[in-house]
Amino acid sequence: MTSEQPAVSLLGTSALLFEAPGHAMALQTQQRIWSLARVAATWPEVREAVPGMNNLMLSFARAPRAIDALRDRLCDAWEAVTPLPLEGRVVELPVVYGGDGGPHLADVVSHTGLSIDDIVEIHSAPIYPVYALGSHPGYCYLGGMNPRIATPRRKTPVLSIPGGAVSIGGAQTGVSASAGPSGWNTIGRTSMHFFDPASNPPALLQPGDALRFRVEKVIR
Amino acid sequence: MIEIMSASALATVQDLGRCDALRWGVGTAGAMDPLALAAGNILLGNDAGAAAIEVPVFPFQVRFTQDGVFALTGADCAARLDDAPLLPWWAGQARAGQVLSLGLPRGGAWAASRAYLCLAGGVDVPQVLGSRSTQLRGAFGGFEGRALRQGDVLRAAVSGSPAARPTGFGLVPPALALPLQRDGVPAMRVLPAAEYSHYTEASRAAFWAAEWKITAQSDRYGYRLAGPVLEARTTVEMRSHGIVPGVIQVPSGGQPIVQMRDAQPSGGYPKLGTVIEADLWRLGQAPIGSRVRFIETTWEQATAALDETDAWLAEARRLVELARHQRARS
Predict the structure, then answer these.
(1) Residue A47 and residue B66: Cα distance in Å, rounded?
(2) Class of domain A7-80
(3) pLDDT at A2
(4) pTM (predicted TM-score)
(5) What Å distances lie between residue B155 and A44, A75, B71, B125, B283, CA to CA?
């Protein structure tokens, strides 16, 4: 949902979803989301403040009676927060684009009308800031993808893609941290351990860190 | 200690879930029927957060390798200890060498699909990121991060003489004490979610009116439902955001998927609504092939339902305490 005003909606009695206004997944908006998460995480009814892509989920320790009051407090806090410019490390990942490791590269070609070389060049150009973690342990949602290579999520999710799969879903790109189902278009393959439950924190990357894809090989 | 004798897979160690690791992309996992798990722990005097074995495939057998107490809740699966039949929702004790067998769940007034085997002090596996629940994707938590296999040996966190923990009493299952049906079909209350208004009026009406069949492609990750095709008036490519178990997503095919305990903690499909926390156990117990209905609810009703669940648990604690005192006196 996108509009001029933020949207707040219920996820049952377990959580509340705050969505920042606007369509673009702007870094500045995300920096405000990080700020809002820090503020909301200190509220007694909030169990965890979980940033998404230009949105924030608040899970509840116990569903609060006065949900409207919490809603208002959240919107007021959004107006008050300033962007939190987190900057961490940049991790470079070598990627083999196409071939067996990138079975849906052809779908991105047909959707965008671009050549494989164009797609690889556009995809490997930016430094992608980690906006949020989600989906599965250690997985990073990245900002900064060039909208020219945006490709809709697949109509039917693929039952399992391997860890290290580099994929595009809508206007987003990412690297799967372990094998599992996915509705995104897999365009290449890399390898990296993103998650270790015995480490503290368990995830390799956190919001504000960044990924860069280096072209190791293109299989046409 | 118990040894798993069944080859049937998919039984896992679960507690009430891993609720503080969402920001690292870790979903909650946890018991599909948290009320049955909580009741089993109450029957044994365990902590509320103790872990148990969730059994979704039958028959299922374990052998006690030493004397111990146990409680069985969830589906009534005609359990036997060696040859002696056991009552459902009951705490009992076993001697070393005895075999506990769970048969096919009985249908009837409270058809259910998952049983919980609780042990004294809970199943002794390490806490990982604050929980003992099995996280299958990423393979951690529970018993070695995986489903149980034949030959696995699990330890109860509290060993010692069963005499220290009185048994021989049970509870009336919440399916009987807190029933919820529409036109004779098990029902769950749903709070509309962000994209509810994106669906056509006819689709919204159909969602509340239809009986939804739980298809064979339903598991701990999600329940795929079959029924009328739900049509959106607008399609939006969503930005990924946090979701919770109970969220009803509608992919472009128009058939809803209810996210269950092993669901990923974020998603991007449109959300019609969310099965409220107080009713998620009902869906978690609904057998594949059965039909369910959804009832529109409000925040006030949904939080009142949580209070009702808490009151049921408090009453269960009181009754078990009473039974324990009586046993101790006799």
Answers:
(1) 40
(2) alpha beta
(3) 44
(4) 0.94
(5) 36, 49, 15, 8, 30
CA atoms within 13 A on the CB side of B315: 13
Q: Which residue has the tokens 């998620």?
A: B280
Could you give the residue range(s) of every CATH 3.30.1360.40 domain in chain A? 7-80
Domain with CATH 2.40.100.10 in chain A: 90-219
List of residues 6+ apart from A122 with CB closer than 8 A:
A114, A146, A148, A149
Secondary structure letter of residue B239 according to DSSP: P
Give how far A5 is from chain B: nearest CA, Å. Answer: 14
Other Cβ atoms within 10 Å of B252 Cβ, number = 14
Contact A10/B193, CB-based, under 8 Å?
yes
Fold classification of B181-297 is: Cyclophilin (2.40.100)
Closest Cα to residue A53, out of A24, A83, A10, A91?
A: A24
Q: Name the segment(s) of chain B with CATH classification 2.40.100.10.
A: 181-297
Report how far residue B322's alpha carbon sits from residue B99's, in angstroms, rounded to the nearest whole number: 29
Counting Cα atoms < 13 Å in the Cβ hemisphere of B129 gives: 33
pLDDT, average across residues B50-58: 96
What ipTM was reported for this prediction?
0.95
B140 touching A (Cβ < 8 Å): yes
pLDDT of residue A157: 80
Residue indicated by tokens 């504000």: A208
What is the mean pLDDT of the segment spanning B103-131? 93
The residue whose two tokens read 């684009």 is A97
Do strands B271-275 and B185-192 pair parallel, antiparallel, or not at all (unpaired)? antiparallel
Tokens 């200890």 belong to B81
Question: Do residues B145 and B136 make contact, with C-beta atoms less than 8 angstroms apart?
Answer: yes
- Domain A90-219, CATH homologous superfamily name and number: Cyclophilin-like (2.40.100.10)
Question: Chain A residue closest to B234 (CA)?
Answer: A1
Phi and psi for A148 in degrees, rounded to 5?
-65, -25
Please indicate whether, in this complex, the C-beta atoms of A52 and B236 are within 8 angstroms of each other.
Answer: no
Indicate left, alpha or beta for B193 from its phi (over 0: left) and psi (-120 to 50: alpha): beta
**Could B138 and A50 be called an inter-chain contact, meaning their C-beta atoms sit closer than 8 Å?**
no
